[in-house]
Specification:
The complex is a heterodimer of chains A (195) and B (219). Chain A has 195 residues and is mainly alpha-helical. Chain A contains nine helices and one strand. Chain A folds into two domains: 88 residues, Rna Polymerase Sigma Factor, Chain: A (Orthogonal Bundle), CATH 1.10.1740; 78 residues, Arc Repressor Mutant, subunit A (Orthogonal Bundle). Chain A is elongated. Chain B is mainly alpha-helical and 219 residues long. The chains are: A mainly alpha (195), B mainly alpha (219). At the A-B interface, strand 1, helix 2, helix 3, helix 4 and helix 5 of A face helix 1, helix 3, strand 1, helix 4 and helix 6 of B.
Chain lengths: 195, 219
């Protein structure tokens, strides 16, 4: 599937957000749409990096804004609005990751065997000098490993925050980050690193 | 191949990169060019990841989002009305249930047996968690780590389902499928099987090591 590439949006849009939030809280549909337009790119990109399938990322985008509309009255503006939306999106994306993973595993044994084959296949591919750029190397990471490296290295979440959001430990987050780096490095080396 | 005893692990280097390194790592880096290069690679990889283009939704999703928000809003309104009715019905039902409870001692005993089984599985699983945590702290070759990754993903998925069941039981969750006690026991048994497989991977002899790239082989 081909995606439209867009420029990274600025991180803070608080001045215009404040007015829009106040209007959206009063039930102004246009203000809600404007908030959506301002933030959809970042939310979708984040969801797309965590979820493997584009349609899942679209679902996360939708669920995030449904949740936003539901919880907006309780948003007091203590922190950044963008950060608040991002946190909702991460929670929704990780939840989807968990459920998809569980649904995909018809039986534990089958899933495990298939994952082991996939890990082996990845090594064979890397050893076979396949040209893997950073995008495809990132996509080839196991779901949680990809989520951790993206949340930590790109979105700037700490290991403590990732542990809290994913329901795992800080050492889990740290070991996933190290493995992601190790694997991405080896992919880029064997593939020529054309990213 | 195990990492050289004096070299920091990749986790240590990443901690250093993030400003949370130890004095020992800082000291080591001052005198080890290989580790400095490896550290530099972690900076570069982070920059490359941040430089990846943003992905935009392939189509305008707002009409669907707006429809979902409206549906959710009217569902909540209906739910509020229904809840008021339910509260009244619940009071009447409570009186009826109180009568039935007296005759349900055998059902209660069966439920207690299931809960005991569930507790036992939880305790076994927690013991295996401790053992796995201790093993994960050790340095391990890449091939072993690669075999463990998908298993940890499965464990993560099972934990997610268990969490959502716990939340659902406490009335906080949104899980559409509430599991029966038997299904919950099955879920915990799956968790134990998975942990057992992970232990087997940890303790597996290094016979396949030569067919994989070794961890930190360049240091």
């Amino acid at each position: 599937m081909v995606f439209t590439r867009v420029k990274r949006q600025p991180n803070v849009v608080s001045a215009s957000d404040d007015l829009l939030i106040a209007r959206a809280k009063r039930g102004d549909g246009e203000a809600l749409e404007s908030l959506y337009r301002l933030h959809e790119g970042r939310v979708y990109n984040l969801a797309r990096r965590i979820c493997r399938k584009p349609e899942d990322a679209e679902e996360v985008l939708q669920e995030t804004f449904v949740e936003l509309a539901r919880s907006l009255p309780s948003f007091r503006g203590d922190g950044s609005f963008a950060g608040w939306i991002r946190r909702i999106a991460v929670t929704k994306a990780l939840m989807r990751l968990r459920h998809d993973r569980l649904r995909a595993a018809d039986s534990l044994e089958d899933a495990t065997a298939s994952d082991l084959q996939s890990a082996h296949h990845f090594h064979e591919q890397a050893r076979g000098n396949a040209r893997l750029d950073l995008e495809s190397a990132l996509n080839s990471l196991p779901a949680m490993t990809r989520a951790v490296v993206w949340l930590h290295d790109v979105e700037g979440y700490t290991h403590e925050e990732i542990a809290e959001l994913s329901g795992r430990s800080v050492s889990f987050s740290k070991s996933r980050l190290a493995r992601a780096h190790d694997r991405l490095r080896s992919s880029l080396r064997s593939g020529g690193g054309n990213s | 191949m195990k990492p050289a005893p004096n070299h920091p692990t990749l986790e240590d280097l990443l901690d250093h990169r993030d400003g949370r390194g130890t004095t020992a790592t800082t000291k080591h880096l001052a005198s080890c060019e290989a580790c400095r290069e490896r550290l530099e690679e972690t900076y570069q990889l982070r920059s490359q990841l941040r430089a990846l283009s943003s992905l935009a939704p392939p189509r305008d999703r707002w009409p669907a989002v707006r429809a979902a928000i409206e549906a959710e809003s009217s569902r909540r309104r209906r739910s509020l009305i229904a809840r008021a009715g339910l509260a009244a019905a619940a009071i009447a039902l409570f009186a009826l249930v109180a009568v039935f409870i007296v005759d349900r001692s055998s059902e209660l005993a069966a439920r207690q047996a299931l809960e005991a089984q569930l507790n036992s599985l939880r305790e076994q699983s927690e013991r295996l968690d401790d053992e796995l945590r201790a093993l994960q702290r050790r340095a391990m070759p890449t091939w072993r780590a690669e075999l463990l990754l998908p298993l940890e993903d499965d464990l993560f998925a099972i934990d997610g389902e268990i969490d959502s069941q716990v939340l659902s039981a406490s009335g906080e969750g949104t899980s559409p499928n509430r599991l029966t006690p038997d299904e919950l026991i099955e879920l915990w048994q799956d968790r134990l099987t998975l942990q057992d497989t992970m232990l087997q991977v940890h303790y597996a002899p290094a016979v396949v090591e030569t067919s994989f790239t070794t961890d930190r082989g360049s240091l």
